[in-house]
DNA sequence: TTGCTAATTAGCACATTAGCTAATACTATG
DNA sequence: CATAGTATTAGCTAATGTGCTAATTAGCAA
């Protein structure tokens, strides 16, 4: 919803990668902290930024907090902005898929 | 091409708005500085960031430098990233257009 | 060359961000 | 209740970003 917060959240490489992790499965703060070799407080902060931007949601289960991707929110904001700036993008869908695939391949 | 630079460039509200201005026509540094009530040096810096991210190109004509949007670069990076994180976005195109329209309407 | 306009670069002040450690909640379990 | 485990908040430092003014570079014209 708030474009400012979304783009601020996405400005950080680690945060974009957190989203990539969460695109596969839910994970807890400490799960992610381990994978990023980062302290739990630092990770908690990143997750807070992502949550305030509406890009992830959290759910407490017992003593752990699980974070989950809000994929629609991400896609709608990004494509909404792209079309606002460049409304000619009709034929780009197929091309973009191919590009996404190439980028995954070079990770 | 370099996702880091693109997202860093888009993290600034003024820079996103500069892209919106450039989506309609080419403009010079001082044109944009006037519209944003910003000094020319500040604007020059923003344009430099956008150019290094590949989102705009510049062309000197006489003593003025004209900046132009690289729409494809923007759209490819954003949709490429969106599909990488959330590859389910097939049916979202129409929806996104509608959203872009709504956002323009509330400017 | 000189003068004028446009653009950029350099240097400074201020605010913000990202990482850490230490301290503080919250939850489950002895 | 006490303790351990998980998460978050507070407080700090180092680095970065954004705005400005002053100085410098590039181009055009007298």
Please tell me about this protein's structure.
The structure is a homodimer of 107-residue chains. Chain A has helices at residues 3-10, 13-22, 29-35, 40-52, 71-85, 92-105; strands at residues 27-28, 56-61, 64-69. Chain A is α+β, with helices and mostly antiparallel strands and 107 residues long. Chain A has one domain: Winged helix-like DNA-binding domain superfamily/Winged helix DNA-binding domain (Arc Repressor Mutant, subunit A, Orthogonal Bundle). In chain A, β2 (56-61) and β3 (64-69) form a beta hairpin. The first copy, chain A, is elongated and about 45 Å long. Chain B binds a DNA duplex (30 and 30 nucleotides) through residues 11-12, 14, 28-30, 38-46, 48, 60, 62-65.
Number of helices of chain A: 6
Apparent shape of chain A: elongated
Strand % of chain A is 5-15%
CATH class of chain A: Mainly Alpha
Largest interface: A-B, 38 and 38 residues
Helicity of chain A, in percent? 55-70%
What is the fold-level CATH name, i.e. the topology of chain A?
A: Arc Repressor Mutant, subunit A
Q: Please count the beta strands of chain A (DSSP E, at least 2 residues each).
A: 3
The CATH superfamily name of chain A is: Winged helix-like DNA-binding domain superfamily/Winged helix DNA-binding domain
Order of the strands making up the biggest sheet of chain A? 1-3-2
Please give the radius of gyration of chain A in angstroms. 15 Å
- The SSE string of chain A, one letter per element, is HHEHHEEHH
Oligomer: homodimer
**Main β-sheet description of chain A:** 3 strands, antiparallel
């Amino acid at each position: 919803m708030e474009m400012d917060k979304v783009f601020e959240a996405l400005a950080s490489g680690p945060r974009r990668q957190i989203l990539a992790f969460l695109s596969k499965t839910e994970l807890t703060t400490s799960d992610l902290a381990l994978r990023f070799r980062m302290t739990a407080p630092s990770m908690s902060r990143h997750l807070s930024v992502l949550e305030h931007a509406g890009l992830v949601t959290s759910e407490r289960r017992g003593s752990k907090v699980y974070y989950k991707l809000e994929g629609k929110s991400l896609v709608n904001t990004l494509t909404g902005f792209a079309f606002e700036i460049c409304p000619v993008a009709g034929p780009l869908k197929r091309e973009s898929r191919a590009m996404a695939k190439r980028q995954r391949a070079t990770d």
